[in-house]
């Protein structure tokens, strides 16, 4: 009788563990709302809110059209310049759903296509398509971008 009770208890624990693992949100489900928050922050030209989703240390790498920027302080300074300290009028829109490539439990590559429209120096509307590839890492505080590469085309 004891063997049956122990077996039943172990099976119940095992089933409960599987149920918890199955109910845990996927990396894609966890990262997708962060991507949405990035677009909202970008359209508000709010650098600090946008960069909340990035690692905040010297390991952060950002590449834009061949220009490599290393470390959170340098990336933040560059983003402030791009968005003219919040005065930019650029508007970003997703051009296609993001793609997700799970490398392992703690690393995901996300690729997005965005459109960007802003007023050019001549007063005309300038439109670009931007391809963004990000490596997201699971950190103690949640998923964060550790590497970002952007390229744009007129």
What does this structure look like?
This protein has helices spanning 2-23, 27-43, 47-50, 72-82, and strands at 61-64, 67-70, 91-94, 99-104, 107-119, 125-139, 142-153. The chain contains four helices and seven strands; from the N terminus they run αααββαβββββ. Strands 1, 2, 3, 4, 5, 6 and 7 form a seven-stranded mixed β-sheet that branches. It is α+β, with helices and mostly antiparallel strands and 154 residues long.
Q: Report the total helices.
A: 4
Instruction: Please bin the fraction of helical residues.
Output: 25-40%
Order of helices and strands: HHHEEHEEEEE
Indicate the structural class: alpha+beta
Characterize this entry briefly:
The protein contains 4 helices and 7 strands; from the N terminus they run αααββαβββββ. With 154 residues, the chain is of the alpha+beta class.
């Amino acid at each position: 009788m004891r063997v049956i009770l122990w077996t039943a208890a172990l099976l119940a624990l095992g089933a409960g563990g599987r149920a918890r693992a199955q109910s845990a949100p996927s990396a894609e489900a966890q990262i997708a709302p962060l991507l949405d928050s990035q677009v909202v922050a970008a359209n508000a030209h709010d650098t600090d809110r946008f960069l909340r989703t990035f690692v905040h240390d010297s390991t952060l790498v950002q590449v834009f059209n061949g220009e490599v920027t290393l470390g959170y302080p340098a990336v933040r300074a560059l983003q402030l310049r791009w968005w003219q300290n919040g005065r930019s009028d650029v508007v970003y829109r997703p051009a296609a759903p993001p793609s997700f490539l799970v490398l392992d439990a703690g690393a995901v590559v996300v690729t997005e296509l965005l459109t960007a429209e802003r007023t050019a120096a001549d007063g005309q509307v300038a439109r670009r398509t931007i391809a963004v590839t990000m490596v997201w890492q699971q950190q103690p505080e949640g998923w964060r971008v550790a590497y970002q590469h952007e390229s744009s085309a007129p």
